[in-house]
Design goal:
Length: about 200
């Protein structure tokens, strides 16, 4: 069982901490790890994201898969690895970034929207796929994709995922869900994040 599949089996919700500041990372990470989250992503368009990734990896890397989102260059892949991150998530379908992540020994979950993109990314070595933006698709689309993708391919819808939308996507076969603003908004305290996390976990 891959590290990604194992983490999603423990908790299929991926925390996307877009906009978090490094000084907030430890407290918010504690709320998430304490709540059972096993995958935490810091988008690289956050303030000083490598510092946040380093803090989260140092404190919670033994309990959760820590990494970066909105990765768009091979140089960023190397920086995430140097910060202690183990996960690379992209907003787009770029096989070169997948190959760079695998060369660094990292887990790659690139973004895709079409079957052609999905198969190209899997051929490059992707460990899972991020269906993005999921708001522009539907659970029926996911069900159709899973019928043709290699059996066992983890597909995670991202965009518009919250306590109301998760059940239908789960029923369609989603292996996990990227959760952004429904879980964390810049400035949220650890207590607020913990409460949101509990609501989302209940939706499962």
């Amino acid at each position: 069982m891959s590290a990604l599949v194992e983490a999603l089996a423990r908790c299929p919700l991926v925390a996307i901490l877009r906009g978090i500041h490094p000084e907030e990372a430890e407290g918010v990470g504690a709320a998430l790890a304490g709540g059972g989250f096993s995958v935490i992503e810091v988008p690289l368009n956050s303030p000083n994201p490598m510092a946040s990734i380093a803090t989260l990896a140092r404190r919670y890397g033994d309990r959760a898969l820590i990494g970066a989102g909105t990765v768009t260059t091979e140089q960023e892949v190397a920086a995430v690895a140097a910060a202690g991150g183990r996960l690379i998530v992209t907003p787009h379908a770029d096989p070169a970034i997948v190959r760079a992540a695998k060369a660094q020994g990292l887990i790659a979950v690139p973004g895709f929207f079409t079957p052609g993109e999905a198969f190209a990314l899997l051929a490059a070595g992707a460990d899972g796929l991020k269906l993005f933006p999921a708001e522009a698709a539907s659970p029926a689309v996911l069900r159709a994709l899973l019928a043709v993708l290699p059996k066992g391919t983890p597909v995670l819808p991202v965009g518009g995922m919250d306590a109301m939308t998760i059940p239908a996507w789960r029923a369609a076969g989603a292996a996990g869900f990227g959760i952004g603003s429904a879980l964390y908004k810049p400035g949220d305290t650890p207590q607020v994040v913990a409460a949101k996390a509990a609501t989302l976990l209940d939706a499962l």
